[in-house]
Each structure stands twice: as structure tokens, then as C-alpha cells.
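Support reply, case 0932

Customer input (verbatim):
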Amino acid sequence: MALFTLCRAYRRTSIFYALTLAWALLFGAGVSCAREPSDSNASQVHLNQLPKEAKKTLRLIKQDGPFPYKRDGVTFGNFERRLPQKERGYYREYTVPTPGARDRGARRIIAGRNSEYYYTDDHYKSFRRIVE
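Our regenerated output:
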């Protein structure tokens, strides 16, 4: 019985990895077996270099809202593994409005549980740690 359960779990895991790989290949995300990124390897951006919309979003994060977008504050999965690996739920994502965009746009701030903040303007392809 235990072997049957183990085989079922393995099959579900294999399907998950196959679907993840297919998603990455379809949408152009690179699949990499590189080492886990560290904060020292992440590029940085100083607070005064951010667009004004990002500064406003960061203020809202620090005062716990109110947030203009329904998905602000949802768990960021870090599936691309471009941020340091942490347990699920460690990172939250917030929209940085893009002037002229008809949707949420590509800009986000990712907030870590220990008050570290990352900015992306290319929808998770790259991140820069915000230095205050």
C-alpha cells in the first residue's frame, strides 16, 4: 500500500514538473539549474532612482494600504527563482502603476517578510533590490 501511495505522489510530482517545463518553454521563460541567487548577486536600485509610482507603492506597502489593485498583497511564488529561495508565503507582490497602461502593466514591487523590497519593471524577468 505504501509503495502504491509513493508511486501516486511521484506521478503527480512528475506531472507538475512537466507542466512547469512546458509553461516555461511556451512563454519564453528560461529554465535553469543555476545556483540559488543571493542578495549579494542581485543588482540594486536606490529609492530616489525609482519612478514616482514605485515610491508611492512602497509607501503604501509600509503603511499596509489601502491598495488600488485587488491582487496587491498576494503571495509571490518566485517560480523563476530570481530572488533568494524562501518558504512559500515569504514574498508578497504589489502593482506599480504604469502610466498609459490599460491593465496592471509589468511593474511590481516584491516585499519580503524581513522588510526587503525588490523592483521589477519587466514582469519578473529581472529584479533590483531597493536600497533606501
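We compared this against your earlier run and they match. Two observations from our side: The longest helix spans residues 2-26. Helices lie at 2-26, 52-62. Please reopen the case if you see a mismatch on your end.
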